[in-house]
Amino acid sequence: MSSYKDLQAKIFERDNYTCRYCGKSGREYRALVMSHIRTASMCGDDRESNLITLCRYCYNHISNNEIRAKFETKENADYFWRLYHEKVKGYCYYTNYIKKVFTENGVLMTRPQIDKYVNIFVKNDDDFNAFKAELQNTGYKNMPSKMRSDVRKYNHQVKNQSKE
Ligand SMILES: [Zn+2]
After folding, report:
1. Considering the chain, what percentage of its residues have pLDDT values greater than 70?
2. What is the pTM of this model?
3. Residue ranges of domains in the chain
């Protein structure tokens, strides 16, 4: 049950307060960053073996791909890749389905609009079934504006939370 700060302190200590990429010590630079080896968008998580100490310069200048190629363990690569593959498979299925039912019912909803919604609200089959039920209740004609308004509300919420 450790907080983000605790985790960060642990990773810095493990890496001896040194950027793992260029070897500069954070005591010289005072600007260390805890970074993911595999980013969350590629299904990386906060396990310690997926975290790394970088200096701010390397954090901003070295690509995610290079960090991943250099530091990811084979075990994590296999595990995260499987998760990613399943996520993408699910994701494509959900967005394709939604696009198809709207098109079949003569309702215009662009793929970026659908992508935004699916990214936030349709993460698994349960969410997808909930979406289909909501579509039944709301109807094809009214659903796009409801989806757009849900995305707006969500983004607004996130923005306010990050201000706290
Ligand atoms: Zn560095």
Report:
1. 95
2. 0.57
3. 4-72, 84-163
